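Table S4 entry, Mannitol 2-dehydrogenase.
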Amino acid sequence: MAAASLHTNGLALSDAVLPRLPEAVARPNYDRARLRPGIVHIGLGNFHRAHQAWYIHRLLQQGLAQDWAIVGAGVRDQDQIMRARLQPQDYLTTLIELSPKGKSAEVIGSMIDYLPIEDGNAALVRQMADPVIRIVSLTVTEGGYFISPTEDGFDISHPDIQHDIRHPEHPRTVFGAIVAALAARRMSGAGPFTVLSCDNLRGNGSIARQAVTSLAHHIDPGLAEWIEENCSFPNSMVDCIVPATGPNEFALARGFGIEDAAPVTHESYRQWVIEDDFCAGRPEFEKVGVIVTPEVHAYEAMKIRILNAGHQVLANVGELMSVETIAECMAHPVISRFFDKVEHKEIAPYVSPVPGVTPTEYVGLVAQRFSNPEIRDTTRRVAFDGSSRHPEFILPIIRDALNSGGPIDGLALVEALWARMCAGVRDDGSIIEENDPDWQRLSEVARQSAQRPTTWLEQQHIYGNLASDPVFAPAFCRWLRVIWSEGSQASLRSYLDQAQTTEIEA
């Protein structure tokens, strides 16, 4: 991709205008009319288009994967908005790379259709049941897997899951639709497909398998057994910082001479690591830099613990202190020191190296990426859905630290800052708008915790037994009181001073 000069008006993106785009804008060199579908992707947001769809596009640019084009899909009403934006532009997307060295643009064409969103998901089930589809991939967010703390890990009691059990022919959920499609393929002899989770979950393939097979077992035990024996659910790790799209992103696209209803900005770094477990074949991912390895978990743990947990270290205090973006947090003299201390002292010790990269080196890489001023990734976006992200990204590290006798003061402060943020008011008195699917309940508990901090930890579906932990609970309660009485920045300074004193004494 190469930089372009500024344009005041752009061409409305479509197949027809591709030859007329400014010379600096890269575009498909392949005949999109000849592409055939091989992948259905459910949850078609910015990340998928900047990441998985880009990798398929790169294969297509090499003359490969002509039968692995992507059909987009969704199961939520809001997915209709994205379909309405992409359909008139022939499902093309402008990707704008934001590097400290400059901006560049590329139009990708690996998606060739987007299924209608409808009650009962008939079109989605029908498409997935078609034998040409060999991979069904997912980016449905961490909260979309119906994870439960119960022994089998799947929330079978959820109303939408109960609906799918009673009405399997008209599924409401992603997993209900997958089960319905696999039932049809089993009956028709079309064979299985691979379910490829691309969400930020530890063991995302195993979690997807649990969701599909648990639901199938309650619908048809024989089908569940067939799925277990025939389908594959590879674990994967995905990595690329992709901000939400707003007025600035539309303006950037116009600056390249393109009117795109859904442009995507992204950093210059990407990584994708996948287990080679595909029951119905796969594209030649290795040829475009994907790491195909049985050692996904080590890469996954490094990324989730250092990058995803690091995002939560920054996002909540950034919201409380009215610091708008992650890059601005990294430029803040106190917040950045807080990030550095927590990462090096309380997170990196519980991360194993991967080939060529130590945890300390990866912390440095993440700090560099987070500091990119061209990436306007808001603290609000990163803080969204903390009720899914903190249990997945932060709490496992805390438990490892407690088990090994390591320091947890900074991580306890991270959790106290989240609790304070959920009260819905910043340090300057401005209102924090709803930012979690469970916001109303979280806000009520957060306000109660101002008087009795343990109330926050007594949310067992999030914290398990940590409310009674003799090390973590007192640290959390102490920090929450400090935040409420003295403010967020004062709490960070107190932690940094405490850590500095400890280092000097040592």
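Residues 297-505 form a domain with the N-(1-d-carboxylethyl)-l-norvaline Dehydrogenase; domain 2 fold (CATH 1.10.1040.10).
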